[in-house]
Amino acid sequence: MTVKTEQDVYKNFINGEWVESGVEEVYEVTNPADKNDVVGRFPLSTEKDVDKAVKKCA
What we know:
By secondary structure, this protein is an alpha+beta fold. Helix content is about 20%, strand content about 40%.
């Protein structure tokens, strides 16, 4: 029996730091052997998030 638990939303890893995304929308990644087992939730980062990351790393 699989127990589904509430997962934290992971942040973007930029230049050695975990950084919040500018959006609240997320996607879930599930265990391929058990689609009811959510491995994690990740932000649907936008072009603005990418631009901030590039500036931070430059």
